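Q: Hi! First time doing this. I have a protein sequence and I read that you can turn it into a structure. Is that right? Here it is:
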Amino acid sequence: MGMMVAARRVETATSVVRYEFGFEDHFDRVLTIDPTTLEARVEDGNFDSAASAITAKIVNAWRSGGEFPPRIIFAS
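A: Yes, that's right. Below is the predicted 3D structure, encoded as structure tokens:
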């Protein structure tokens, strides 16, 4: 069974990049990435497979383009 996780950037600062994310377009969780270390955490403390997948997709986009994307989707 597949999974689709969508994220939208809601904040970009020098010390943090914040995304709302969730399954399909239900943005019910918040992911925070430190742009210096690329360390990621989820506000609810549950860094599950959905959080891991969307974090990897965001970081890969940043590495290839040099910017954190405004929106991104992970689908498997």
